[in-house]
Amino acid sequence: MKQEYIRQVARRLDLSKKQKHEILWDLEEMFDSAQEHGESADQVIHRLGTPEEYAQTIMSQTEVPGKKFGKTLLGLILSCVVGVLCLTLFAVTQQSWVPDNAIGAAQGVTSIQVVGGFDLSPILLVAGTLAFLLALFFVWKLIRQRKRG
Questions:
Q1: pLDDT at site 107
Q2: Over 39-52, what HEC string results?
Q3: d(C-alpha 18, C-alpha 24), whole Å
Q4: In 10 A of CB 105, how many CB atoms?
Q5: What whole-number distance in Å separates Cα of residue 127 and Cα of residue 5?
Q6: What is the pLDDT of residues 67-87, one digit of tens each?
Q7: What's the rounded Cα separation, in Å, for the pair 19 and 27?
Q8: What is the pLDDT of the chain when averaged over all its residues?
Q9: Which residue, 90, 80, 85, 95, is CA-closest to 124?
Q10: DSSP assigned state of 62
Q11: What's the rounded Cα separation, in Å, for the pair 138 and 147?
Q12: How far is CA 115 from the centre of its chain?
């Protein structure tokens, strides 16, 4: 009865192996302690509730690394997308192009500068670089989470 209860709780816990092992160890000790104090396994099960209820209680009290993993992965993906977008826009703003039907020719390089215009290219370069640095941070965070879990 006790082992079946523990097995059912284990199936319902969506945690890392380490966390699940600790919780099941505590549950095993709870049964043993209750038995030492004259309580039967049925009484302990009645006190704890169904395996579903007990697992839900534990899950609500336990920090689930899977949720953190999902947020970290989402942050990684978003920072990569922003980085690629910013650096692509930066590269496009740096390209000079001449229309096919341009009139005239020049012996040297000519350029037209708009006075009072605002150049976004440095901002795009900085934003893209920061986005990729943030992506590296998220990769580091994911690696740490994998090692812990």
A1: 64
A2: CCHHHHHHHHCCHH
A3: 10
A4: 6
A5: 54
A6: 667 788 888 899 999 999 999
A7: 12
A8: 83
A9: 90
A10: S
A11: 14
A12: 45
DSSP string, 79-116: HHHHHHHHHHHHHHHH-----TT-----SS------TT
Nearest 5°: CA angle at 40, between 36 and 43? Answer: 125
Closest residue by Cα to residue 125 from 75, 76, 88: 88
CA distances from 2 to 14, 40, 84, 94 (A): 20, 10, 55, 70
Q: Can you tell me which residue has the tokens 């192996």?
A: 17
Token pair, residue 54, equals 């007990």
Tokens 């496009």 appear where?
92
